[in-house]
Design goal:
heterodimer; A: mainly beta; 2 domains; 7-stranded mixed β-barrel; 6-stranded antiparallel beta sheet; B: alpha+beta; Gyrase A, domain 2; Cyclophilin; 7-stranded mixed barrel; 4 helices
């Protein structure tokens, strides 16, 4: 089966599992910026949570089904249509041969996931199909999708019936976010005032990081540290006076002060943060963060067996 | 051995201070082979391990790491492998060379002679795929990170900070002043072994071209 890329929008990539176990070689995690939404789309297509799907950034994308196939969409959603007829996210759809799927710009949220039965065929590197844009591997030739690309998939496992994401499991898309964080190793350079403050997302954001503007302390000498391991969700202060929160394609080590860490249970929310959005941080201890993760995983356990945040 | 202090790094990683790079690499291998950690990442002064917080609580992970450190091998590895790399130093390849040399009161040629005479070794890989941190740079040479990182430095670029060099395997953003560019590819995604360098390797630099 083949899906033809008519327009990929500002950026679309193939994503699957995060790469684990090779950060000491400088290999980032990659994988979906919002793994929960990708898992929900995959579920409706009859797939496992991390089967290879398309991550679409800010909509504006169009695809043509070369053959009849099931598909599903989750995540941020603007207007969705199939050959001109309005369709909804969070439901299994069945396209006919030649149908054009159009994904509009979302009003809130940032990334939309398109899944097909069996997942897309993609380049494997170090055990994962995920596109790593900074290094140029995984996905389709290690790059973002282009108009004219033909994406192969094996729809042998087509779902028999249309499924719908239970209403209480659909992530709420918003322009103001509350992110639960634990203090990072360099929290001491921050003021406790960080907790009640409101921060704003600038226009500098991609799959490596999101810039956060706000009342960060100004560090005269940059307060650089010897380079140490950093993971997605790390919030670092940079000499520009703004902070960056690291995303799946981010570097594996860094020397900027690591002041906060978005907890594992909430990192999927970062994938839906858009320019101009507002952010507040909610303080957690690492034990609370562990309990948050166990609780959130339990909510999705029946619908998404085996899904890990 | 003395068990170092264990610190949380966020909610799903722990770090310990290990100053000696040779011991850091041995300890990293030991922890990696234990299979208990999702990632084991050496830093310049420390070692960080990631854990699956759904499988173990932070307190459990802490206890497992403390136990592993008590039984860790005390040894250090010997850096036996050595590699020679060719360095281009024309103004396009090394846009910061003249300024950094001047700030050290040296001509570019004298600066490079000291770089090439330094006992360089790969301390750790990280930051980006194939990026190598080299220790051993002549401590007389001083250089600081750029106040504003470049959006893009070329693949093979050699950055210099006081006491160390950083080799950029791929084009990408970078905050180190760039003094030259390595000819050999440092990362090849289709090679059986995609990385030219690895932690522990000794490195000798040889300046190419007429500007040296």
């Amino acid at each position: 089966m083949t899906l033809h890329v008519v327009r990929p929008g500002p950026q679309a990539t193939l994503q699957g599992f995060a790469r684990v176990g090779s950060r000491h070689l400088g290999i980032p995690a990659s994988g979906p910026a919002d793994p929960l939404s990708m898992a929900l789309a995959n579920r409706l297509a009859g797939n496992a949570s991390a089967d290879t799907a398309i991550e679409i950034t800010q909509g504006g994308a169009e695809f043509e089904f070369r053959q009849a196939s099931a598909f599903a969409i989750a995540g941020a959603s603007g207007k969705l249509s199939l050959s001109g007829k309005t369709i909804v996210a969070h439901r299994t759809h069945f396209a006919r041969q030649g149908d054009i799927l159009s994904i509009g710009h979302p009003d809130t949220g940032f990334r939309t996931y398109l899944a097909v039965p069996g997942g897309f065929v993609a380049d494997e590197f170090l055990g994962s199909s995920s596109t790593c844009l900074p290094a140029g591997f995984g996905g389709l030739e290690g790059r973002a999708l282009r108009p004219g690309d033909e994406l192969e998939f094996d729809a042998a496992m087509e779902p028999a019936a249309s499924l719908e994401t239970p209403a209480n499991l659909r992530p709420f898309m918003t322009a103001s976010h509350v992110l639960r964080c634990v203090p990072g190793p360099d929290y001491a350079v921050l003021d406790d005032a960080v907790w009640p403050d409101v921060f704003e997302i600038t226009r500098r954001l991609d799959r490596t990081g999101i810039e956060i503007r706000g009342p960060w302390p100004h560090l005269a000498d940059g307060a650089l540290k010897p380079s140490a391991a950093v993971f997605p969700g790390a919030i670092q202060l940079t000499p520009s006076g703004n902070a960056f929160v690291l995303m799946p394609d981010a570097q594996t080590t860094g020397g900027y002060p690591h002041v906060l860490q978005v907890i594992r249970a909430d990192r999927h929310l970062l994938g839906q943060v858009a320019p101009g959005d507002r952010i507040r941080f909610l303080r957690r201890t690492s034990e609370q963060a562990h309990n948050d993760l166990v609780a959130k995983t339990a909510i999705f356990a029946d619908w998404l067996p085996g899904f890990r945040f | 051995m003395t068990v170092p202090d264990i610190r949380m790094v966020g909610d799903d990683a722990l770090s310990i201070e290990v100053d000696d790079p040779r011991h850091r690499n041995v300890l990293a291998e030991h922890l990696r082979h234990s299979g208990r950690w999702t990632d084991v990442v050496p830093g310049r002064r420390n070692l960080t391990v990631g854990f699956d917080p759904l499988a173990v609580s932070p307190a459990q992970a802490h206890a497992v790491l403390a136990g592993a450190l008590e039984h860790a091998p005390p040894g250090t590895q010997s850096a036996s492998e050595e590699i020679e790399l060719a360095l281009r130093v024309d103004p396009e390849s090394g846009p910061d060379l003249a300024r950094v040399a001047d700030e050290n009161g040296l001509s570019p040629e004298a600066f490079l002679r000291r770089v090439c005479a330094s006992p360089l070794a790969v301390d750790m890989m990280g930051f980006m795929p194939g990026f190598a941190y080299l220790s051993g740079l002549d401590p007389v040479l001083r250089a600081e990170r750029l106040a504003l990182p470049r959006q893009r430095v070329a693949a093979g670029s050699v950055g210099a900070l006081t006491g160390q060099l950083g080799l950029y395997a791929l084009a990408g953003p970078g905050g180190w002043p760039i003094i030259g560019r390595i000819q050999e590819p440092l990362f090849d995604k289709v090679a059986a072994s995609p990385f030219l360098l690895k932690a522990g390797m000794k490195v000798r630099l040889r300046v190419l071209g007429s500007s040296s």
